[in-house]
Amino acid sequence: MPGRSTLVFGGTGSIGRAVCRALDATGYGVIIADLPDAIARQEDLPRNWRTVACDVTDRASVEAALEKVCNEVDAVVYASGVNYTGPVATTDWSAYERLQRVNLQGAFHVGAAAERILAPGAYVFLSSVAGLSGEAGGSVYCSTKFGLIGFVESFAAEIAERGARANSVCPGNVDSPLLASLAADVAARERVSTEEILHRFAAESAFNRLITVDEVAAVVSFLISPQSSGVSGQAIIVDGP
């Protein structure tokens, strides 16, 4: 219930910050877990938000972060994520390894440690519509997001008997710096303008626009709240039909 705190991994990112704002607005305490340099760059954090340094790719770092806040936190949001685009034939293997470590392995680290350290609560993991349908140039990113949905479904089944819940949120193309960077990479590969790619991304939704970070955050906030007490193991799409 509001009054307790939610630990938001990747809370310095555009979606992560929006999630923190949404939770704060509904009365939840906010604790951001992120890389030290990412936290250091945040000059405008509200005074009532706390931070804890954490590298999700390092299991010991995740466990240490959770130990620091275990008496305050009853909900966790995993918003850490990176992206990469490119054909399978020319895969950048360093990028491949980074995406697997951050997007998927980090979620495993958080889920495994939280189950040992925290009391039962609600977990929300940020996946993507790219975790539901593959696309050319997206094999690496899609593989992590498909895997994340499978992880959440399995994790939810394991923690249900303790009264805990886990869901994934699958946004479409979100108006964010991460999408802009991806669009620039696709544009360079196809030798067109970034604006053309962003227009294409927007047109992929029946809304004919990009999804906002606040729209994603609203769904995450609902899934953390008691109003979603009967929802677990689900992949909730935030996009047009």
From TrEMBL:
<protein>
    <recommendedName>
        <fullName>Ketoreductase domain-containing protein</fullName>
    </recommendedName>
</protein>
<dbReference type="GO" id="GO:0016491">
    <property type="term" value="F:oxidoreductase activity"/>
</dbReference>
<dbReference type="InterPro" id="IPR020904">
    <property type="entry name" value="Sc_DH/Rdtase_CS"/>
</dbReference>
<dbReference type="InterPro" id="IPR051122">
    <property type="entry name" value="SDR_DHRS6-like"/>
</dbReference>
<dbReference type="Pfam" id="PF13561">
    <property type="entry name" value="adh_short_C2"/>
</dbReference>
<comment type="similarity">
    <text>Belongs to the short-chain dehydrogenases/reductases (SDR) family.</text>
</comment>
<dbReference type="InterPro" id="IPR002347">
    <property type="entry name" value="SDR_fam"/>
</dbReference>
<keyword id="KW-0560">Oxidoreductase</keyword>
<dbReference type="InterPro" id="IPR057326">
    <property type="entry name" value="KR_dom"/>
</dbReference>
<dbReference type="InterPro" id="IPR036291">
    <property type="entry name" value="NAD(P)-bd_dom_sf"/>
</dbReference>
<feature type="domain" description="Ketoreductase">
    <location>
        <begin position="4"/>
        <end position="177"/>
    </location>
</feature>
